[in-house]
Amino acid sequence: MTTIENKTFDEIALGQSAHLQRTLTTDDILLFGIMSGDANPTHFYPVDEASRQYRVVGHGMWGASLISALLGNDLPGAGTVYKSQNLEFATTVALGDSLTVTITAIDKNAVDKTVTFDCKAVNQNGLTVFTGTARVYAPLEKQCRERVALPEMKLSRGHHAFEDLIGRCKELKPISMAVAHPCDEPSLRGSVEAAERGLIEPILIGPRPKIERVAGDCRLDISRYRIVDVEHSHEAAARGVALCRSGEAEALMKGSLHTDELMHEVAARDTGLRTSRRISHVFIMDVPSYPRMLLITDAAINIYPTLEDKADILQNAIDLAQVLGIAAPRVAILSAVETIYPKIASTIEAAALCKMADRGQITGGILDGPLAFDNAISEEAARIKRIVSPVAGKADILLVPDLEAGNMLAKQLAYLADAEAAGIVLGTRVPVVLTSRADSAKARLASCAIAVLFAHRRDAILQVASP
Q1: Do residue 139 and residue 280 come from a single domain?
Q2: Whole domain around residue 34: which residue ranges?
Q3: 326-347 per-position pLDDT tens digit
Q4: Rounded alpha-carbon distances, angstroms, from residue 21 to 24, 66, 91, 101, 257
Q5: Could you tell me the pTM of the whole model?
Q6: How many angstroms separate the CA atoms of 162 and 296, rounded?
Q7: pLDDT (tens digit, 9 = 90+) per residue, 306-329?
Q8: With 80 as the cut, is the pLDDT of residue 152 above it?
Q9: How far apart, in whole angstroms, are the C-alpha atoms of residue 2 and residue 149?
Q10: Helix (H, G, I), strand (E, B) or coil at 77
Q11: Is the pLDDT of residue 99 over 90?
Q12: Helix H or strand E encompassing 215
């Protein structure tokens, strides 16, 4: 039906009725819980074992809402306004139950133009679920309106990957983290919150008066934290790197200075935090519509990486994935197409990287490429294109062709797919946390948690290697 035509008060006859049938689904339960805020576990988990009932009980008012649908859509229809509703529930409605709800006009009041309806719902077994009455103000004027096209709803899982990462740090000792120039609220608050969650022991590096002013304005207690007083952001970056080189700090975090300013000191050949590995950045994405954590690299450091650079970038990401609990991460090497095409350099490099993995030059991951984005993350897309691969549709890591592609991909996921992104720099002596003013509090905490996990893994490796 494309239109809704109502019945006016004068047109309604006693005994006139309407009915509908609806089956309770998991999505119905979730949507009703979201709309009402009713998170009663009874509606989301089977009843406990002691009761010997193993079924999910739906919200009683979900069934009652079907009365509203009948009154608004069918009888009386457009223009109907509720006055009162009385219901008595005889039994529960369970997941998978089909309700037939019927309303029947039983009384009309000419003074206030109200109509009283008898309401009844029965399930697929003929058992009465509820009975009662509804009293409404019936429309006085005839209306025939176009039916509203309600939007389709697609439920996705909530963000949970970051909470899992933060939770894994509960039993670990906090690490000392040099925070370079935390001179605005997001960077200083992020440091304090990470400390309060037991993740880090921050060393705040920057102009002391400015840091203390921000703390006062934001009502943040920083009295227990060490402050290294320096004049400006450039000196804060240099001092932070120096503390990491000396071992006083186990990780470095960007504050309210520009990324280039910090990374200049990190990458300095003689005084920075270089290792034999290429420095690279990894976004750790929690995408509600994707069933697993997704790592994207490199979207912040290497602008146009060479094949040799990409080998290091990949190894950094694989090492990180293993720290995060992915024993054999599946790596999709992205390009515009999934076939090797000589005019597209990234397809040639993808093939070379896969062969490097075959020969042991890249270890720990399962590589495939070139893969286009759709068949890297969608098993259905891979099936349609007849791509047989252990990686296609199930990627844990996406290696992008260059920084521009990676940065746009990460931001598209954040702003169009409701993803949250944490970020960390690897290939350095210590993990480096790069934060943005746009990062959520949870993303900042997750970035710190990742640095904690990585630092503890590095310490464990060094202990094993030492005589």
Answers
A1: no
A2: 3-146
A3: 999 999 999 999 999 999 999 9
A4: 10, 9, 17, 6, 60
A5: 0.72
A6: 16
A7: 999 999 999 999 999 999 999 999
A8: no
A9: 9
A10: coil
A11: yes
A12: helix 208-217
